[in-house]
Queue: 3 jobs
Job 1
Amino acid sequence: MDRLLQLEVFSKTAELGSLSKAAETLRMSNAAASRHLSALEERLAVRLIERNTRRQWLTEAGHEFLQRCSTLLNELAEAEGAVSDRALSPNGMLRVTSSLSFAMIYLAPMLPAFRALYPKLSVQIIAANRYPDFIEAGIDVAIRTREQEPDSSIVVRRIGQMRRVLAAAPAYLARRGRPEHPADLARHDMLIYNHANDPYSLRLSKGSAAETVRIAPTLDSNDGQVIRAAALAGLGILIQPLYIVQGDILAGQLMPLLVDWELPLLTMNIAYQNRVRLPAKIRVFSDFLVNHIREHSHARIWMDATRQTTHTPSNSGRSIRKQNP
Amino acid sequence: MDRLLQLEVFSKTAELGSLSKAAETLRMSNAAASRHLSALEERLAVRLIERNTRRQWLTEAGHEFLQRCSTLLNELAEAEGAVSDRALSPNGMLRVTSSLSFAMIYLAPMLPAFRALYPKLSVQIIAANRYPDFIEAGIDVAIRTREQEPDSSIVVRRIGQMRRVLAAAPAYLARRGRPEHPADLARHDMLIYNHANDPYSLRLSKGSAAETVRIAPTLDSNDGQVIRAAALAGLGILIQPLYIVQGDILAGQLMPLLVDWELPLLTMNIAYQNRVRLPAKIRVFSDFLVNHIREHSHARIWMDATRQTTHTPSNSGRSIRKQNP
DNA sequence: GTCTCTTTTCCGCCTAGTGCAAAAATGGAC
DNA sequence: GTCCATTTTTGCACTAGGCGGAAAAGAGAC
């Protein structure tokens, strides 16, 4: 028997002065209400409501207990309401990790709008060019270019696909000449972003023609800004998402190369741990980011994004460490 | 499902860091504990404890809810404990009514010893020479001489039987002569206590002889002290419980009459409303009074009392008015 | 990959809780 | 005193739901 319901029957009976009315209010039969109240009195070994078929009144014990259990029922309702509400109204701290470039160019600029929508939610951006372990780093959300996670409990959701470009400084081109064909790249100094899929094999296509070039990196890094700085210094030809170097190109400090050829797109994903009930903050952030990218995307940087979860493991899958309370 | 048990499972799991340990502590199976916790999370629509088979930790919502429900569980245990304790440790106010004489001679003198035993219980003695309605007067206990109650919900329990005496002032006897035989009483001025059974018919016995005398009261009253005062003033012959006039007789102010003859005993009862669970204060007071009378009775005043409830109606019988909270 | 241990879920059983209706009680009207 | 309407309590039959055991699933240690 639900002991809370016993307290509710007692409280409501005292309030309304009638077991029958309490039963009606609590949507149960008179018999059930009578049994709940009797069970409570038996458990406490005391008569709480002295009553007959015509009248009833609280005993002294009943008076005292009523005050206490009314308070308790209110507090419980408030506690349960508060905790249910927080599932709908995200608050606390959200920890996001992404590349430095993505953080600078996309995450930071969009935060004011996000915070305006969710004032109780703090966002901490961890710019990292390695993939930290979710658990160890306390990461809620990661923006990543890789499409698969070794951890089966991580959900990967596509944000979109980005164009990439080949570009070099004018000084480099003056010194080493300009590549006219994809095959020429094999003889050039290449600056590679090693977090891309198969970064040392480059596939370019023009119309129906396609060429795959194996390149030997002069420098490879997991940091887009490092690669950008090296290219600006004339150390070689970079291949990077357009969003990172668009400003340099417009300023004439980097010259785009083989612009008639198309490079493979870079898929950008958001990843988070799958949970029985996804915390609201992760849900709202993901939705906001995807929508923000979609609304502010330029065709030259982003291809049309499709909302798609590429991998959803079973609900019981977890890979997490017990935290000290 | 017992919602309080759900809270207990959650609280204990958080405390011990393991559903299995919580189950063991709460003496239930692992399966049951798992279901209770899941049911609570479903009811609140939020994950309280993130967990897998190897580790678990509180979510933010879980942290907040744990603080609140730990408090609630403690408060409820305290409330239930307090109300159960009061059933064992009577407190509050007990209202007792009796005749003025009984109050002065028996109740008041025994109160110090009673209060020493039950310091939290206040006793209010309502000296009355009429029988007030239990409900209207808020009476808990009544000391009465009548043996039956019109209200079937009232329990009557015998305290004992008291000797009665005939006595008159010397001045009256000098003026009117001394009755030598019960029949002589018919020619005397009689002072009658009208709360006795059949107060106008007097049956006296000596050995195997018995005489019944019909007497016409010069004065009758429901107050023993009024009758006593009239006798002391020489207005007539009284018949009263010995305990009321013993002091006057010893002082020579009243002369006992027809002392070889025995008068009918006066039955003294305690009465209270029958209840499913008799409030502790009524129970302890009744027991104390009966035991006190037994221990301090003098053969000359009390005959041996027998513990006996003369009428116990069915438990559902009540005659009470709903009180405003 | 195997082992161990915990959590979750399935299954069959059983009991506790249900509503209905009758019994009992109560108080007001007459 | 009797009748009536209404409430509380209790008996009864039924079933929904909660149980424990065991299997399934998962996770970390080795």
Job 2
Amino acid sequence: MSSRLALAELPQLERRTLADTAYEALADLLASGRLTPGDRLSLRQSAAALGVSVMPVREAVSRLVADGVLEVAPTRAIRVPVMTARDFRALAETRMAIEGIAAARTAEHRSEAELTAIRRAEAAFRAEAESAEPDCTRAVRLNRDLHFAIYAACGLTPLQEVIARLWLKAGPVINLDLRAHPERLLQGFALRRHAETLVAIEARDGPAAAAALAADIREAADFILSRGGLRDA
Amino acid sequence: MSSRLALAELPQLERRTLADTAYEALADLLASGRLTPGDRLSLRQSAAALGVSVMPVREAVSRLVADGVLEVAPTRAIRVPVMTARDFRALAETRMAIEGIAAARTAEHRSEAELTAIRRAEAAFRAEAESAEPDCTRAVRLNRDLHFAIYAACGLTPLQEVIARLWLKAGPVINLDLRAHPERLLQGFALRRHAETLVAIEARDGPAAAAALAADIREAADFILSRGGLRDA
DNA sequence: TCACCCGAACTGTGATCACAGATCACTAGC
DNA sequence: GCTAGTGATCTGTGATCACAGTTCGGGTGA
């Protein structure tokens, strides 16, 4: 047929189910901290809010439960898990190890284009953090963008997916803390570690990139733990 | 009440839904290689086989899809993903990195009881592999037991969960290969690496444990890739 | 004033039905 | 003989209903 070539250029249009949409909506609620540890979630209420039946929400929730981002209590209530300080520490250590690996690989494998993207993301976060009136919500998103710009260049898709799930799990705690204590952002804690990481990636120094990024995670976690907002183990 | 203490000793009995059971049944099918890459899965047929309605199966499948262990094709067909050689290599490299970390942490933190458990698991696998007529299915299970005995001692629950998901994802490919080429087991490839890992853990040598375990994963992956059973990227 | 109990309203879980789209065997037309 | 089309049957997706267990508020008892 004459249209063979033209048809070949058509992008595969993705199939989005209502469950996918519901998943993203809930994940966003969690990642942005509007759903905080201990909060309960009702299938029917969520469904009503999203304007669909319970079915898609049910599927979305079951995925989030499988990820450990939500949990069903023995009483069958769905809620955001309340992490103990011990749990949070373990999660942070896991993130330091795994995200450190990704940063190291990025430092060793990154292309120039990827380096440019990382530089741009770092600059965007810095601009927000150093601005006269930083917007916390925006800063959190830019911080996430920077981290994932780094992980995207590591060359290992499964590793990225693992990290994305860990972030989803840590999201509620981190954002809850940030909303309660936005001053940390102003002190530019993360800025130095980000700069160190960027320098290491530029220099193709894997171990240094891993160390700097792990330090970033550790300091953020230490800060949150020092606030004492988490339940003891 | 007088029975307060006695009641406190009761273990919380877990609530098992049909969806949980269906999930385990399907996961077992995948991990044991009875469901191989490319196979299609029907909700209704699976439900009939399990003697339940489609609902629990649906939920189980949606979890497995979220884990990347199953996928829904754009035609809405559910199937076991067919990995390209490139995908499998990326998965293996991710596993080498992450499971290496776990092994290193185990070497540095393990208790004597955990070391004993690991020794026992290693001996069990060795006994099966060196027996006159090794049973492949059994050997695969013992190999898994050994690896997870190591990971269980790493002290980081989130890390263990991450690894479990990676194994589920790699399961179909590995088991498919093993069923097609059981001779690798007989040659005792893995035995040396297991022994090296055990020695390193005994000596509390983290880097050595990570290297030995990563080598175990790499050699298994290389063997499978050399068979050419996987589609090119 | 406090503890208890009962019932209404809610919870997640599972089954069933409805529907649009995909498959596949088969046939009509060239 | 081979292709295009057609209809029965299957697919996953979503909505709805049924049910048992939980939660919570209001009343009754002491």
Job 3
Amino acid sequence: MPTNSKKTTANPAHGRRRELLATAAEVFATQGYNATTVRRIADEAGLLAGSLYYHFDSKESMLDEILSGFLDELWTGYDAVLDAGLGPRETIEALVTESFREIDRHRAAVAIYQKESRHLVTQPRFGYLVDSQRKFEKAWLGTLERGVADGSFRADLDIRLAYRFVRDTVWVAASWYRPGGTHSPEEIARQYLSMVLDGIAGREPAA
Amino acid sequence: MPTNSKKTTANPAHGRRRELLATAAEVFATQGYNATTVRRIADEAGLLAGSLYYHFDSKESMLDEILSGFLDELWTGYDAVLDAGLGPRETIEALVTESFREIDRHRAAVAIYQKESRHLVTQPRFGYLVDSQRKFEKAWLGTLERGVADGSFRADLDIRLAYRFVRDTVWVAASWYRPGGTHSPEEIARQYLSMVLDGIAGREPAA
Amino acid sequence: MPTNSKKTTANPAHGRRRELLATAAEVFATQGYNATTVRRIADEAGLLAGSLYYHFDSKESMLDEILSGFLDELWTGYDAVLDAGLGPRETIEALVTESFREIDRHRAAVAIYQKESRHLVTQPRFGYLVDSQRKFEKAWLGTLERGVADGSFRADLDIRLAYRFVRDTVWVAASWYRPGGTHSPEEIARQYLSMVLDGIAGREPAA
Amino acid sequence: MPTNSKKTTANPAHGRRRELLATAAEVFATQGYNATTVRRIADEAGLLAGSLYYHFDSKESMLDEILSGFLDELWTGYDAVLDAGLGPRETIEALVTESFREIDRHRAAVAIYQKESRHLVTQPRFGYLVDSQRKFEKAWLGTLERGVADGSFRADLDIRLAYRFVRDTVWVAASWYRPGGTHSPEEIARQYLSMVLDGIAGREPAA
DNA sequence: TATGAATGAGAGTTCATTCAT
DNA sequence: GATGAATGAACTCTCATTCAT
């Protein structure tokens, strides 16, 4: 028996789990959770449907592991930003950049989250989604409010509307983003920030 | 002769169909198409599952009718805007406003479209979704290009990115919009346009 | 109000019934009883499925009326032959000829009978099918036995086998017979009788 | 080492399929394909309806496998006869004998074929039925024609009528034949051939 | 670890039948 | 006589899950 079995990559068993979860996430993202059969995941992974149950309790537990894994990493990044003591504008910039990085690394999980979270939040098992949403909203709303207060952001904003605007604008990108494309996540973040912060209108309006 | 005989309710047969489609759309939007059972729709409509098949060929044909009905109305509005000979900026403003009006009138259909269109486009039956998407892209991209050319929009925009930005930004609103709320569609459109066109940053950056 | 309404064709109501039964018989024969939907019959007859229930109690009662109507006419013809006091060979000839006449007049009913009688006989409602079969077997077997006894038929016949041979040979013709073709029923009967009685082999065997 | 390892039971997976197909064939033959529920087959086989779908794609694919399996074996036998270079009369004798052997081995499949082929031929999936029918007709008609030409068969025959006569006469036997009865297939074939070739009439007509 | 076979609940759909109008 | 709408039972089929091997 291995002595350091708690490490992630060191454990071959964990390696297999990850592979299977990655496969499952890809299929969930493409077809939707409900429309995905356990058989399809197994096919894609090269084993039989029943064999997946050696690794996971249920289809739902795969989904759970995918989403919670993603959220854990997301909050590691977000918390680092929020704890850095940046100004409102720089915080928004950092959060948006971090978000695109997460989309880059967890595209499938993000896509699943977008499609499925609305009805998952009603299930006790996925209570952490509600917690995450609340924390998320608090972080963004708070930053926007601070920014309006100190003049970083326009005073005439409907804050809740602006929050939804920025939030959706960023995350929906997961629906079309393909890792390894021409733009790096940071590059996309920069362009998005440019549009969100300064708008798309020309400085000198057309005659 | 009645003065209001041109209204939809004049045809009782079509009235029932509409009611049932509205019910189905609501459930599809809430639970997702795949996760929605025909029995659930029937329950909600107050009849038995089998009875729905007197009115519709299949669950899929309900979805079809909902989406095509929505797109028909959408394009009536869009075409009116596109044929009006407006400048690029005014066109974008009119399209965004029209979009929020459609979200107001077809909230469920829009939500369904957002969630399901990605895999529906692969089915021949829903080929019109592809057509619509192409036409949609052409209208928005073209307007943005014209606007960059005449200085209405910033010259340094990545046009495709800007297109996705505006497109998603508007339509995702269907996921949280509730008709009859405090903001009218036109009011929301105005605020969105303000953010999209001029950004959320303050004019005088914070010290 | 008509004074002689008890006659068959005189009563317009009966006329409608007959039309509908003829339509139903045609569809039953083509598709099989089970595979035929009441809606299909109604379509073919130019009314709605529910409306058939003004004329008939049930789908099964249509089948019943078709089969019993056919058997009534069949036995009128058969009884006339059997009561005519003919010799065995002439009796067989007359029965076969009469059978082809019935196939000509009741093709659909005969086809239905062939396909469905086997499982219908188990239902009490169709008990008359069993009676008819018994009477049928008695008539044919008896005639064959008489014929063997008086030398009309070969002495080395397995009578039961010969009975099945003649019976099937005749009635299966309903599966390909089309009224109004080049051969009259009497002509077909003559050719069949020639084969059944004298065989298809050449008189002088080929070297 | 087992001496009979070449038998079908050597492959356990195929063994189960065969069992299930045999059960299905029996029920289809008895009740008719349409009237047979998948549940009934499952009951008869001792498992649940859904479990059948582990082995077969659909009810229709069971039917398909039953019929194509039967036709494959039938044509193996027929082709051997047709390739043997026999004279017309001997060919007919061999084909009839082979047919009764097939009825003996595939009674259920033959009965199903008789009842269902007429509407199955319209479905593309069962196109091979049409092919088989054409080949069948060609083989029998050709043999009869050759026989008329060389005097083996009567010159005054309507060939098509004779073809149908022989064809039906043989295959309808599947509707009453029960394997393991008093007559072997070869014995029945001999008696049938005697009737078909030489007729049932006595040599010396009754005075 | 993985397979092959089965389970059982529930899905979408069909259809004979009913009945108020 | 016929329609339009609905019923309710049954059907074929799907699928997450289990378990002996």
